[in-house]
Design goal:
Blueprint: H1 2-50, H2 58-79, H3 88-91, H4 95-122, H5 124-129, H6 139-174
Length: about 180
Amino acid sequence: MLIDNVIRWGDIMKSIEKIFKKLDKAFELASAIILSVMVLSITLQVIFRLLDKPLAWSVELSQYLFVWLTFIAGYVGARRAQHIGVEYFHTHTPKPIGDFLKFISNLLPALYFGVIFYYCVSLWSKLMAQRTAMLKIPMAFIYLGMMIGLFMMAIYYLYLALNVYISKENQAKEV
């Protein structure tokens, strides 16, 4: 019975990984597009300042796109294991303790990102009422990029935390 459950969880984790891989492409493309629009906006601002006709909206657009880029690319960084981490304790302690530390070190960011996501959602109606200074768009759309990135990072770090023990049980079953 336990072995069957481990096999099912292993299959579920493999399916989740396939979904993550598909989302990776979308997030990488979104990051590239956001960065391109930021560069274009800043370049236009420089050109128009040289012509003594600065654009009022370009700086604000770049700032808000930077917020989006930070969190969208944050998920890409998490998927590529580019976020800072301390592996010394995982690798230099007995395996059960190392696994537990790896579990905790993935669970804590998942909880952190989840809590921030929750509070962003709870403030959504207030953010819809507030508008940006130059672009006059609701601040909720600025926070939307943050919410998408936080949600995806929370899900991914939760996946990593669970995978510490599920992959361990799967490996024991295969031997």
